[in-house]
Amino acid sequence: MIGPSFFHATVAVTAPIKGKATSLDIAHLAGVSQPTVSRALRGSPMVNEETRRRIQAIAAQLNYKVDKNASNLRRQHSGTIALLFFEDPTPDDSQINPFFLSMLGSITRACAMQSYDLLISFQQLSTNWQADYEDSNKADGLILLGYGDYLEAQSRLEQLVQQGTHFVRWGAVLPGQPGISIGCDNFQGGHDITTHLIGQGRCDIAFLGHASNHYPEFFERYRGYAQALQQAGSPAQPSLQVDAVTSEQSGYEAVQELLRRKVRFNAIFAASDLIAIGAMKALHEQGRRVPEDVAVAGFDDIPLAAFVNPGLSTVQQDTKLAGQILVQSLLQLIDGEPVESRTIPVKLTLRGSTGAS
Amino acid sequence: MIGPSFFHATVAVTAPIKGKATSLDIAHLAGVSQPTVSRALRGSPMVNEETRRRIQAIAAQLNYKVDKNASNLRRQHSGTIALLFFEDPTPDDSQINPFFLSMLGSITRACAMQSYDLLISFQQLSTNWQADYEDSNKADGLILLGYGDYLEAQSRLEQLVQQGTHFVRWGAVLPGQPGISIGCDNFQGGHDITTHLIGQGRCDIAFLGHASNHYPEFFERYRGYAQALQQAGSPAQPSLQVDAVTSEQSGYEAVQELLRRKVRFNAIFAASDLIAIGAMKALHEQGRRVPEDVAVAGFDDIPLAAFVNPGLSTVQQDTKLAGQILVQSLLQLIDGEPVESRTIPVKLTLRGSTGAS
DNA sequence: CTGAAAGCGCTTACAG
DNA sequence: CTGAAAGCGCTTACAG
What we know:
2 copies of one chain form a homodimer.
Chain A: H1 4-14, H2 23-30, H3 34-41, H4 49-61, H5 68-75, E1 80-87, H6 98-113, E2 117-124, E3 141-145, H7 150-163, E4 167-170, E5 180-184, H8 186-199, E6 205-208, H9 216-231, E7 241-242, H10 248-261, E8 267-270, H11 273-285, E9 295-297, E10 314-316, H12 319-334, E11 342-344, E12 347-349
Parallel strand pairs in A: 1-2, 1-3, 3-4, 4-5, 5-11, 6-7, 6-8, 8-9
Antiparallel strand pairs in A: 10-12
Helix pairs in contact in A: 2-3, 2-4, 6-12, 8-9, 10-11
The first copy, chain A, binds a DNA duplex (16 and 16 nucleotides) through helix 3 and helix 5.
């Protein structure tokens, strides 16, 4: 009973008591040097297999974990990506677009698969959101996410580029933008869904959403919408466009504005699903039936779109792919590889709100 | 032109070129020792004000940021909280309960106010979610969030307690639980909303949601529901309870199950808003009017509840307060202060789905 | 009020 | 295959 195994057992019991185990503790117990422990645990090939097994066993017993701060400091790299989520105008605490939550989930997963941690931060556009994450070595790079006024954001982006910060942005992909952007094909999406509405026999199609350079994603959707109308021989009418940001409330109010204008419309293309859902609410309250009186379509395909009544026809963005590409592009950037902005295809998801099912 | 100011200007231009500035660089430029720079920049009172200003100016010029890895290593503290979000059964990529997103937002804000960073991680209940965040010094403590099978999670929680990990959990607050829990008053919420339904003249009230120890939050809501019914003289009927997890799909299917059973019901209390929304969808498809034929109530008050048709009556959880208390409790725990589990009050938000407006 | 010294726990050349 | 040495960039006693 009295021998090495007894000795080891004793050690395993007493060591954790004096705080967290370090690689040096393990080295002593294993009778090797501390660097060897480090090598063994990181799977270096230049370590004897038997030595490695012994070290691993002890490490497991002591519940040893590499200290990230020490490791990162030494390696000058954090193994962390910061996700800066900004929304403007400032939403009420509880308002995050479900679409971004999808993105958040897929980004988290993509990071985990690359063994990166994700630091998350919600920012107002108005604050200093370049945020020093990379400067303070807390993160190796930044992912920027959010709807907001692009023109306001632009100078910040330029600043980031100038500082040499590694970042990728989700948003409209347009020529001349600072940094790398990944976005879906907003124009095509707007075009396709509008064409669908026209095919359903609707001519007077309203567009709910900002249509200016301040909101390039919405603007692209608007342009797709306008082109589809043009091709159908009935150009877009300014009186059928109502500004809206991406929230139910905004969609709700946009419909009220539309009614106030007393323009005729038998369909609505909302620049986001949340806008569409708010719009449907307002239509119902006015006794206008969806889709009989007014067909409604959105953009994003948030999980809820299938569960409103009627189900919402919409343009699906592939958030899973988007998250993967964002993370992958950022890691390439960090590694100094060349990266290009990219557009991801969209596809229509048709449901009852346009009379499609 | 040739003098100190010129010298400084030159330095400011050339220094950043050779990589990130360190406190030593600043010390050289300011003509002080490196520890003095460290003190000055952290606002230590034992630094001459003029010296401090000089140092700050140089730091700003060089865009200097304290290296978090070095600082954390030295101080043996990370300034970071890890949020472990787990959901089980495994949701499709894009499914995160909006309620938790609200929590996420409020937790992020509460962390920011305390100058803590938030590391986020989505976990399957089945994985090793104790996750080593604290062990590897990446985080000073953990916040656990998620609906899931409590009984499965319990042993993990006990493990965390045993390891001395600092953590707080959002969930049911019940005697004998390992660690600190913060939760809303699920029982009261279930009781109040059921009483409201009864007051609307509904007697046959179905409950959609798991009602067992596996899901203590739902179970508490169920108990509140049962007690309210008891008090009204019509005890809960097992045939009116249908298991459901918190998703629209699950609510949709639960209604189908209810119909299959051919039991009579004129109201539904769903254990979450998502369940309620799925239930309403199924009712609509069956031609049952809400609230005329069936009144529907949910739990959570997610932003969307106001925008479905009709608006959903529900039990509001105060996510803002919840996030603050979670973070505050965790920080107290980290500081070694005594902390108790706590229950947060709820309140009813009544809308059209129960005929209340 | 300031500086010289030590050390947080790793990883990485450099020898052997 | 393994070890002795150096050093990542800070913070914190300890002197003065």
